[in-house]
Amino acid sequence: MKYFKNIFDFYIQSSLHVALAVYALIRITFLKLNISYDEAVVCFGFYGTVVGYNFIKYDELARIKKVKLSNTFQIIIALSFVSALAAFYYYLELKINTKLIGFGALLVTIFYTLPFFPNKKNMRNWSGIKIYLVAFAWVGVTVLLPVINAELDFSIVVILKSIQRFVFIFVLMLIFEIIDLPFDALKLNTIPQKIGINRTKQLSYIGIGLFLFLEYFKPNSSLSQFAITSLISLILGGFTYFANSKRNKYYSSFCVESVPVIWLLLLLIFG
Fold it and tell me: Does the pLDDT of residue 135 top 80, yes or no?
């Protein structure tokens, strides 16, 4: 049992699960906007997420705190290196305008982790804006990237789907911020720190309602797709309701991050 737990922990710590969530959201964009499957886009999104998130999570440990490299940490570094090569390969397969979005995502990741200037704060420590940066970044990778590579026009449907995706990620991040409340530095000025857990949950419920409402704005949207979005809204509401600062790490890092995967599976089976 301990062996399987170690594998599961590595799966989460190495950012493979969050990369799977990004993969799922890109596939959802394909389905929602009738875009043909594009291997370069989904693979760039997946491998790029592994590299980006591991860089964000472990840069400070390796660069500043100089922690001892455990076996797990060394494997994560190796995985990140292989993922970087794969991400670069698929980056070359993208169309020129899409490459600009991909390069922009790279810059955001770097500036989010490293300070602009010596002895200055990085974007991650800018008071009160972390949640918005993450949401915009995910919209860029999971909506704009596939749309631009498919050379779709920025119609009102695309814009509304981008807003819906932003709201979806925003709600997920609110759950993370509730759970991380005891560990976040006060200087981060997160939403639960500013308005409290109860009001944060109320904000999340409003976001979930908006997320469901925006599902109306899709041409030829089927009843089954609306039902799936309603079910996802209920799942988000459930995770929000039961979120608290005493939840263990798997509640957010696995369960909450599994919602995009559940959404994709439901669309593939019933959509």
Answer: yes
pTM, two decimal places: 0.93
DSSP annotation of 196: -
Q: Look at residue 124 in the predicted model and tell me its pLDDT.
A: 58
For the cut 70, the answer to whether the pLDDT of residue 140 exceeds it is: yes
Written as one string, the DSSP assignment of 104-156 is HHHHHHHHHHS-SSTTS--GGGSTTTHHHHHHHHHHIIIIIHHHHHTT----H
Q: Which sequence spans correspond to the domains of the chain?
A: 2-270
Q: Return d(Cα 55, Cα 176) in angstroms, integer.
A: 19
The residue count of the chain comes to 271
Query: Which one has a higher pLDDT value, 184 or 8?
Result: 8
Q: Which is higher by pLDDT, 8 or 134?
A: 8
Residue-averaged pLDDT of the chain = 88
Q: Helices H, strands E: what count in the chain? A: 13, 0
Residue pair 200/207 in contact (Cβ under 8 Å)? The answer is: no
DSSP category for residue 244? -
Distance CA 44, CA 84 (A): 9
Could you give the C-alpha distances from 104 to 35, 84, 112, 170, in angstroms and in order?
23, 16, 12, 20
Q: CA-based angle 250:252:258, to the nearest 5?
A: 90
Question: What 3-state class would DSSP assign to 194?
Answer: helix
Under DSSP, the state recorded for 208 is: H
| C-alpha closest to that of 109 among 184, 57, 168 | 57
